């Protein structure tokens, strides 16, 4: 039984020679049976494109066991790459003059693509995006700072008002205390006048005199 080869036909030369000696000629086998003993698989050819972008020719026997070298042709040079997103990106960037005329040729598309994918261009766009982000954050912080300053002004005004109210209450208490002390001093300096009681009239005779009026005491004006 022969030795099977993989899809890329990259087996070593020694193994390939042993398999060739033991397998029957390909002319006597059915169409759907490969010379290695398995079901024949469709082989890749040079005209078969891979995923619509690369063309990789594979020699049938890979003589000498050398690594297969594929001629990779970029899709940009063939002109089959859709350029709508690329054109929109360049138009939004606004750094390429004459975009419509430049993109009419495939080579110009390749240059535009390489310009956008260059390390300097990518770095520049990253820096610009970073700058825009920092500028937006700075404006947000400035708005928050203005709001905080207004709140601090309100807090300062409220503290000042509370301090003034406390001072007013203290001064009003001092005024009431001063008035009370002054009233007590005034009442202590005035002497009390006591009139002698009149003699009682005799029961037999008529009353010769009328009883005197009661003595008036000084009244302190505490709520003056």
TrEMBL record:
Q: Where is this region: Disordered?
A: 187-224
Polar residues bias spans: 202-215
Keyword annotations from UniProtKB, A to Z: Coiled coil
Coiled coil (UniProt feature)? 124-165
Q: Could you tell me the superkingdom of the organism this chain comes from? A: Bacteria
Name by which UniProt lists this protein: Uncharacterized protein
Q: Which organism is it from?
A: Candidatus Abyssobacteria bacterium SURF_17
